[in-house]
Amino acid sequence: MGTEDRRRWLARRLAAADGFVSGAVLAEELGVSRVAVWKQVRRLRAEGYAVDTSDDGYRLRIRPDGLLPEEVRFGLDTRAFGQSVEGHRITASTNSVARAAAEDGAPHGHLVLAEEQTQGRGRRGRTWVSPPGGLWFSLVLREGLAVAELPLLSGAVGVAVADALARLGVAARIRWPNDILVGERKCGGILLELAGEAEALTYAVVGIGLDVNVRPADAEPALAGSTTSLAEAVGRPVDRRRLLQELLVQLERWCGAVRTAPGAVLAAWRARDALAGRWVRVVQGDTAVEGEALGIGDEGGLRLKLPDGRVVSRWSGDVVLVETARPPSA
Ligand code: BTN
To answer: Residue 227: CB within 6 Å of ligand 1?
Structure first.
């Protein structure tokens, strides 16, 4: 273990302990001297941890509020996603920061994380309210980008988020193209932005916003009835570090599968589809089309059966649920 890993281990060991842990025990467990333990405690304090000292040893009283980049990387089981990471207390939009970082040469998988966004962006030019307590982050993707595969990539990101939530015990589904729902309520969204020419994309930025420990009414009062938070879904605050690490693992896995196993991405997307069999309206700018959602097509579009029986595909738009089932007269 390097010194940074030792410090992360120490922070977790103290967080898990019930009361004081002696310096001698910590030194033995870490295989270092007691002075080295003391030095790491000093560094933890500089990072914002409050650690009490007594004759009995050390006790963690307060963890820093935010997610530190070092905490995210510690024990993170990915090849590239999140291995390069920058954290901001507050920023306009992590997608904008990630784009700037990509222009400056940030590597594939570079992660931009913020505790708060002042100009968070949603799909179709909407604003995305991002108070402290949520997970607001963006990833730079450089590998495996082809325009024809973008709808599938967008679905793969949705599948990854739903899978990470499932591992925390939250059953989430995807409302095409990639809204994350718990029950019928939205708890997260995905914004995919691209740079380069259609034939040669230089990079993509995947922005993900999840209402984790945010009260929906605080985040977007106007949407309070149609949104929820993960804390609300599980009935207790959610460990954002653990969730973020799980998200990074699943994102790396599913984004990679777009190239290597597109059939598996489609199958997983279809298995988590919140719309199949339901009567929906797809709104694209000023136009809207209504019909029965038939599910996700092979290229990632939404297949719709119109009232006159024709089957069409939609590649972008917002979906509004009209009825839970197709009206009998239609
Ligand atoms: C949606 O409209 O459903 C997509 C919302 C995407 C929000 C995330 S939060 C992190 C990243 N930065 C942004 O400005 N937007 C995305």
So the answer is: no
